[in-house]
Every structure is written in C-alpha cells, then in structure tokens.
Here is the input.
Amino acid sequence: MPGPSTPLPLVRNNLRRPYNSMTLQLAPGIPANKRRPQSGTLPEWGFNWYRNLTYGQNTSINPFFYGTYLAPTKTAEPVSRSQKESYQCDAISSMAQLNESHFENMHVFRLEWQPGDDGYLRWYMDDEFRFGIDAAGLAEQQNARIPNEPSYVILNTAISTSWGFPNPPPGCTEYDCKDPAKQCGMNPGWCKTLPAEFQIDYVRIYQHAADPRQTIGCNPREYPTKRFIKAHESRYKALEETDALLAVKTGGDDWQGPQCLVPTYQNPFPDWDVEPTISWVSPYIPHFLAFWVSMCIVAMGTTLWFAWRWRQQKRGAHQQQQQQHVVDMDPSVTMAAMNPLAYLRSSSTTTPPSGYQPIPTTEMTSLRTASASDPSGQQHPPFHHTTHAEYNAASTHHPKQTLYQAL
Here is the structure.
C-alpha cells in the first residue's frame, strides 16, 4: 500500500506504509445485523469476527478492510447484478511491513494452500511465516471452508483511488499524472514513480500427487467447471466470441506475455473430462493401413453381394426349368420307367425334333401301365407333363400330338 511512511492507527507492531496485504475473501459474509466489524475498528471491541487467525513477525490485522457489500449494479457498469444477486463479502486480511529492499531486490513470497476440514492458508515472506487462517475458524463462523474450487494465479500491477490514495480535496475529480492540475488526488511524489515495473523472476506451483485433497487444473471432478461453462456459455463470452471455452496452451515456445514463455513440460495429472472423439491416430492405425482395410471391406462386401445375386438368379432359373421339364411322378415308379424322358410335341408334322425319336405305341402303352400301377398292386397317378395336358387327355383329344424319347 503506497503513501507516506507515517504510523498507522489501530495496527499492531507499529506498522507503517508501505505494507503488503494478505487476504482471503469469502461469501456469503457475516451480515450487518450480526455485528460485523466496520472499517476503522477492531474485532475485540465487541464485534463478531473469525477466530483461529495467526499473525507472524511485523504483521497485523488489517482494520481498514473487512469486506465489501456488493450492491445492485448501475446501468453503466460492465457487470450486471440485481438486488436478488447482491451479497456481503468478507475479507480476512492482514498487513506485513515492507521496506526499501522489497523495491530494490528480489524477494520470495509463498502461499501454502491446503483444502479440507483440517486445511489452512499460510503466507510466508522469505521463508518467514506472516499470516495463517485455519479451516476450523471458517467453519465455526459461517460454515465456510478453505476454498477448493478452481482458482487463478494473477500477478499484476493494480492501481485504484480506493487503495492508498488520500481523500481528494473538493473539486478534485480527475486523476492524471501528465497534467499537474489533475494530480490533486494523489500522494505527493507518487507520479514520479511512474512508469513502474513489476518484475517477476519465476512462479512455481507445487502439488502433492499422492494427496487426494490437491488437484490440478481448472476442471476437477468435484467442480466440473468445463461442463458448467458449456451449459451457461452466455455468461462467459462476449457478443463477438463464438466459444466460451478457450484452449489452454501447454508446451512449446509461444509467448504468454511480454517476457513469459509457456513451459515445455506437462504435469502428469490426466484430464478426466476429455470428450470422446473418433479419429485416425497414425502411431496406432497408419493411414495407408486404414485405407487398405477399408478397401478390403468394400471389396468383400461387393463380392458377397454379387455371389448372393448369382445364387438367387441360378435358383430362379433352376425353379423355372423344373416347372418346364421335370416330370411329376410317384416315388415308387422305377428309374427304368422314367428313362428316357418323354417329350410331348404339339405339332402337325411328324418330323421328330433333333435328338429325339418317336416312342412306339406298345412302349407308350407299357409306360402308361407302369405309371398307373406297380407290381405290388398299388395304384398311382398317371404319367403327365407339367406344361401340357396330361398324357391321357393328349392322346385322346390331340391325335396329332406325338410322344418322343431322347436318343
């Protein structure tokens, strides 16, 4: 927090500006009718506040920020919030002293974040403990807990007139370091610090792979963020955007910022929510093999279809041949009586067809007799041709019809 290095009221350990703020914000917070502390007060003055808070050396409670009531938004504001959506947010905040070394040299800031019923948040500066929040105090007050939903790590330079700026004199409504007339609402000499740099050497995040309470990524099983965003895309994308979910870059040499590179390694935590897709993967099914397998399947299917069609046609032709040339007879008639096959020719000429000769009358009579009875004395239907009138009728009513046998 910027400002003149003068003693601050209500703080412990004689803290002065500049200082570092370490804060956990929770919602819903303690309502006003339950004696929540106001800015410029201390919880021990009879207010209702969280317990199980631990402070380290050169650290104090932040008595100037206990949270904010997020009221309904105005029309001009970029975020819309109705009266029903308004809520009280609690800020469990602490302050740690900074000095010139923090602006001239590199320092290590660390946050230990352990969710669960016995979880905690602990802040360190150069390996020295500064501030701690235990899960028991959160559960006791608002039935809250150490956050375990997906969160971002944001490192930025934030400047606001509500943080460290003095109360502007009457008529001072604009802030512009380029115009001396508009520097009335800023601390003396503050504009000389601009342009400023926030130099970061590295950011490292460690998680215990064997601890089920620690998960990596933006989409853990307990909080399926990806599915929620896809179900409420209108809340997460601008009008000109077509997709609310953007791909997360991992590996490679793409720039993520002015001086930040994407790491080339990837964490071994698998993605449990990968959407199923059907694709050809070269290392497992080469494209040329997939092509030939597909061609073989098509060829086999075509061959089977043509074989089926050929068999159907052959079966149809065979049935038609049976209807035209097969003689129906009783099974007891011997092969001698069946051979040779008879050919009934309806014609006025007596010239035999090629390959046939007339059957003598005596043989015709014996053929009729054999077809009518067998040695056992059983009677059978007379011999007949399937496509003409029966032989008896033909020989009686069509004397010009001649019965021939094959040579």
Q: What stands out?
A: Residues 326-349, 363-402 have pLDDT under 50 and may be disordered. The chain is about 20% helix and 15% strand. The first helix runs from residue 101 to 104.
